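Contributing new complexes? Match this layout with adenosine-5'-diphosphate.
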Amino acid sequence: GGAVRFNAVRFGYDPEREILHGVSFAVPAGKTLAIVGPSGAGKSTIARILFRFYDIQGGTVSIDGHDISAVTQQSLRAAIGIVPQDMVLFNDTVGYNIGYGREGARQDEIEAAAKAASIHDFIMSLPQGYDTRVGERGLKLSGGEKQRVAIARTLLKDPPVLVLDEATSALDSRTETEIQTVLRDISRKRTTLVVAHRLSTVVDADEIIVLDAGRIVERGRHADLVRAD
Ligand code: ADP
Ligand code: ADP
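Output block (do not edit by hand):
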């Protein structure tokens, strides 16, 4: 499951000032769509609309054919996982941070959830161990480690739709490459929307849309867009 469709979506934070001027795209279940474009184009707004943080003023948004305006906030949250740009960790154990949302999750529960979500190997590769207190290590936790904890926390919910919001932008290039490899593996089985600044980070996407000032100005695969440059 997890097919996402935006059909002629119009939206403005202020109804007097429209930000998205009729945006349409479809992501088949299991495929990856990348949204690129300059700052202010409306990329993050698309992600927020998918979460229904805001109501749209025209068009429709659906997941697996269900209009999201008729879906409860709770089931939307179960359907969509987000890997945020900046990860804020709780001053607690890695296990607590990963299990956040499942109050008091124990290690065996986390492991069962990890197996169910097919990310057990990934979780086990976290360098910290479940019982390490994040706060004790403090600044020693590298950007890449934090990002992996963030990814694990999101994936434990096993959401059919994944939203990656510039997930690797704050990392050094070696760590960025590592995380991208992890994300590529993980996103292969899920519908994924990647919000990215740079074309070079979304080479593998099934489709790339280029957004500019709230309009899709180009779409295609990476090779098509690079040729057009
Ligand atoms: P990088 O090389 O760092 O990956 P690019 O120079 O390819 O980044 O892209 C920089 C900006 O230009 C991005 O915002 C991207 O959306 C835009 N861009 C790049 N190629 C195209 C294209 N073919 N059509 C429209 N916009 C493009
Ligand atoms: P991007 O993610 O491509 O950088 P955004 O979706 O964040 O772009 O922003 C698109 C436009 O919406 C910009 O003009 C921005 O100033 C405006 N915008 C973003 N968030 C808000 C908000 N909460 N209230 C009002 N305007 C906003």
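Reviewers usually confirm one structural detail per submission. For this one: The first helix runs from residue 43 to 50.
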